Fold this protein.
Amino acid sequence: MQGVGFRPFVSRLAKEHGITGWTANTPAGVIIEAEGEPEKLERFSADLKTRRPPQSRIDSITMSPLPAAGDAVFEIRQSRSGQAGAAIIPADLAVCPACARDIAEPDNRRFNYPFANCTDCGPRFTIVKSLPYDRANTTMSEFEMCADCAREFGDPDNRRFHAQPNCCPVCGPHITLECGARTFSGETALPEAARLILSGAIAAVKSLGGFQLACDAANAAALDRLRKAKNRPAKPFALMAACAAAAKKFCEMSAEEEALFNSPAAPAVMLRKKENAPAVSPGLATAAVMAAYTPLHRLLFAELAKRGFDGPLVMTSANLRDEPICISKEQVLQRLPGLAGAVLDHNRGIHNRCDDSVAFVQDGQPRIIRRARGYTPQSVRLGRGGGCALGAGGQMKGAFCLARGAEAFLSQHIGEMDEPGCESFYLETLEKMQALLGVKAETAAHDLHPDYAATRIAKSLGVKTVAVQHHYAHIASVMAEHDINGPVIGLAFDGTGLGPDGSIWGGEILVCEGAKWERRGALKAVRLPGGDVAAVEIWRMALSWIMSVYGNNWRDKAGRVFGGLDGVDTAARMIESGFNSPYTTSMGRLFDAMSFLCGGPAKAGYEAQAAMEFESLCRGGADDGWNFDIYKENGLWVMDPSPLIRAALENPLPRAAAARRFHGALCAAAAAAVQKISPESGTKKIALSGGVFQNRLLLGLCTGRLARAGYEVYCNRQVPANDGGLALGQVYAARSTLGA
Ligand code: ZN
Ligand code: ZN
Ligand code: FE
């Protein structure tokens, strides 16, 4: 691993043990030539493993004896380039406590300097152009270190020894603030930015992997402008807090959540809101909150604090809807004209665009929802090696995965693949990642859906390809993460994915073994009237369920539910005839239908809104009282929620009580189906994946219940359970089927 202070550590350790020789980075990893007494060498190599820098990871150490060279000292040699191997640069690291102190000390030479960094922190992936990870190969190459910085860089006892982006106010990048025709630089830029934000302005802030839009989260007018400009009427915005203590003023935070919040990856952490939390996530019990993770953010919060402000800022990606995040001032001004009253820019280039990551803690474990800054390009270890396989990913939450040897590298979150700019960002990133890793995809796995952009891209590469069913890929992502070959019973619950029968799957129970899988259970299939539009006009799925339950009588029994809605008769005819209404077993759509039937809105303002709000209603957890029918039909165990539909209509409950019963019933149905399928398939291993398992209540209920019943339960941790993790499962499938 490069860029985490490993070689300096080796050098210090060698001196401590009286070892001579040298160390160098190569694309194949770190090489150490160590010369000394055998017992010293032994202690040295033991310490390499146990005392390694916190950000480093040692995958393997290979040792072989050499004739003594008679070196008098231990030195760090120039990096060697050459053919690619196992080395990889680390992800960007949030500012460390020591650098945070440096910028806050008036007599420090980096006082108030927004680009302070060291071997423990700072930009990495976002500034790297090529390997090895040396300053010359980063966007810092244009800044020549001053004598003071060069001294630190060359001093093995200094924290900044070989810190590639090392810089200071004398030699490094600088910020500027532009608002309208006025430009502020140097010491005036941050105070002015703080002043503007407090006066209600939205500021675009250049962060590590792109621009963010920042405003006072308590300023309703600013929030409203942001929603309109980003064309996001209801979708939640992330928040940034000065520190964990500041976040705790408006959110609850467990010890594990605090550790994740303060981790070097510094993702936005989903936290339970307190009463006084700003209105950034209407209808939800949680908000995504991240730490001020760069010196620039820290200094901005310090300026705000000087003016008496101690609240959080909205900190959302500067983009339109789900387009790629802007990485230059020009893009911000072009894509979001007139929005940013101020642009806080700087002249350190961003080579790799990378959004903020989002994660949550469940059962004490961090779990990723959006995998980008702070995680990319960290690899997921695979159980075995092989050639270079590409997993192309899905249509929503696009991200690809490249397997090299026994490591799988996921790209950063790309975005919704049908948004303008996402496909070219995908292609550009694929090229960059292949270059960084020194590989070229030899095989490619893609979704079964022929119209996904990623499917088209995979097929255009001119390599052997394999189509992988969406829900199997979800389960395979868990198998890849935990190195399971199976058999395993996979519960893949999500919004949408094409089944091999041409219907829309999404509530599947699959028995998987390596690349082989079989569908053994599913949610009862009903019509999806109008296809994708039903995910927005969620009353349509309620209608579909009601017609399935009540048949021709549905108007007498439930017609009133649809009063005042346009298009009900047309939708009913579509459901009857099947026109533009494929069958679906989507679990996401069942959440939509139940949410509406239990008094929720008829339309969703953003993807999965109904499901997220339904979960948020369950303050006290889940309840019993409702039950799915479970039966076998054509060899398939069917989870049939018809009794729930009837109960919701005929014995209506307060919305929150209904939501609690629904969660309880779904967990019980999943457990009941597993209990039927487990003896048939001879396994007690269960994998849970798919976007529905971002529902923390359901995830907790299912893992707890299944574990108590004696099953071994596996879930996604390093990659998202949503479609952002599909590519890992596809790679697993490519490796297994194509023998790659
Ligand atoms: Zn540092
Ligand atoms: Zn300097
Ligand atoms: Fe999915």
